[in-house]
Amino acid sequence: MSMLKPKITARRARPPTPRATGRTGKRSHFAAAFEIDPISRVVAIRKGVSSAELVRTSRAMGLPQERIYRMLRLPASTTKRKLAQQASFPPEQSERILGLQRLIGQVEVMVAESGAGGQPFDAGAWIARWLDQPSPALGNKAPGEFLDTIAGQEIIATLLAQMQSGAYA
What we know:
- The protein contains 8 helices and no strands.
- The protein is mostly helical.
- The protein has one domain.
- Helix 3 crosses helix 4.
- It is globular and about 45 Å long.
- The N terminus is likely disordered.
């Protein structure tokens, strides 16, 4: 009879990753949205993103709320009603709002990882401007034209990652 040895696997220690922090030095809300695990993200989407998150995103980007819900193709009357009632959005709309927050968080994390974390950087304002700039990688369309779908947001996230790595974007 052969004796089975338990398989022991060693975990490799990963070097600490710089954390994106907000003005208070705490981990940024948007960086946390970017780093959230997929299962927790699904749970949050199903629960519904609160209308306060749309307000937070608008403020972070320095854009009027109306501009945000136009970019995300959220119905104006429904969005205004949700804001007035301080209610949560349904999953489909929550997913787009959270997706935009994750893009802001991705930029914050990119800047933190680049070692430029000591200098002030406003990721929300930067991404608001960048989303309006035509990109050759997108057929000279602005990245903001892709925010209304999850597939479009994935294209934008990939483009940002390519910018970070130095690949042609």
